[in-house]
């Protein structure tokens, strides 16, 4: 049974573009039939607590002498890892906050990027998610396109590509929408049509990916 793990992290529960785009992907996935199952986790409304101890960053065999974590935090991390490991496809809604990740999504990353468990550090191959698709839906208020004055300021997309792609070995596809603040910021008003076109294109792309991945 193909299984999707769908994560959202926008703090906007009414007008979020990343939530709308991940929902379009999830609808297309579900429309493929009852065998296409979904686990949904809203990292904003049901946030994970931050990591309580450095031990949680390491497989037990890689921990330093005396490096431990509370049993309830080990159990929570195991649950979050099992949820990811059970997924054939990962879908992540990732709004840009302060040029980076929302803290809620960063905390999820902290739980699942575990050397020796989800990424290889020593002689034991430890990349169980290698080759699985990860679709990252980014949504930014400004523009970070090549040639724009803020090109290079996007510290959201590169981190997710490095963690999910390079570290965990997943095959990452980014569905990006930007200039989402054009209707709100007077200086960006001329960009409203472009912003809406980017949003529409991202919705179409997410629908196509959800129907085929
Ligand atoms: C706390 C916060 C920080 C933000 N920081 C940035 C930023 O650094 N750069 C930017 O382009 N937009 C920024 N924005 C705007 C969001 O990226 C924009 O509203 C985007 O559409 C959020 O995704 P969503 O529509 O899925 O909620 C910020 C918004 C919030 C709420």
From TrEMBL:
<comment type="function">
    <text>Quinone reductase that provides resistance to thiol-specific stress caused by electrophilic quinones.</text>
</comment>
<feature type="domain" description="Flavodoxin-like fold">
    <location>
        <begin position="3"/>
        <end position="172"/>
    </location>
</feature>
<dbReference type="GO" id="GO:0009055">
    <property type="term" value="F:electron transfer activity"/>
</dbReference>
<dbReference type="GO" id="GO:0010181">
    <property type="term" value="F:FMN binding"/>
</dbReference>
<feature type="binding site">
    <location>
        <begin position="16"/>
        <end position="18"/>
    </location>
    <ligand>
        <name>FMN</name>
    </ligand>
</feature>
<comment type="similarity">
    <text>Belongs to the azoreductase type 1 family.</text>
</comment>
<keyword id="KW-0285">Flavoprotein</keyword>
<comment type="subunit">
    <text>Homodimer.</text>
</comment>
<dbReference type="GO" id="GO:0016655">
    <property type="term" value="F:oxidoreductase activity, acting on NAD(P)H, quinone or similar compound as acceptor"/>
</dbReference>
<dbReference type="GO" id="GO:0016652">
    <property type="term" value="F:oxidoreductase activity, acting on NAD(P)H as acceptor"/>
</dbReference>
<comment type="function">
    <text>Also exhibits azoreductase activity. Catalyzes the reductive cleavage of the azo bond in aromatic azo compounds to the corresponding amines.</text>
</comment>
<keyword id="KW-0560">Oxidoreductase</keyword>
<dbReference type="InterPro" id="IPR023048">
    <property type="entry name" value="NADH:quinone_OxRdtase_FMN_depd"/>
</dbReference>
<dbReference type="Pfam" id="PF02525">
    <property type="entry name" value="Flavodoxin_2"/>
</dbReference>
<protein>
    <recommendedName>
        <fullName>FMN dependent NADH:quinone oxidoreductase</fullName>
        <ecNumber>1.6.5.-</ecNumber>
        <ecNumber>1.7.1.17</ecNumber>
    </recommendedName>
</protein>
<dbReference type="InterPro" id="IPR050104">
    <property type="entry name" value="FMN-dep_NADH:Q_OxRdtase_AzoR1"/>
</dbReference>
<feature type="binding site">
    <location>
        <begin position="139"/>
        <end position="142"/>
    </location>
    <ligand>
        <name>FMN</name>
    </ligand>
</feature>
<keyword id="KW-0288">FMN</keyword>
<feature type="binding site">
    <location>
        <position position="10"/>
    </location>
    <ligand>
        <name>FMN</name>
    </ligand>
</feature>
<dbReference type="InterPro" id="IPR003680">
    <property type="entry name" value="Flavodoxin_fold"/>
</dbReference>
<dbReference type="InterPro" id="IPR029039">
    <property type="entry name" value="Flavoprotein-like_sf"/>
</dbReference>
<keyword id="KW-0520">NAD</keyword>
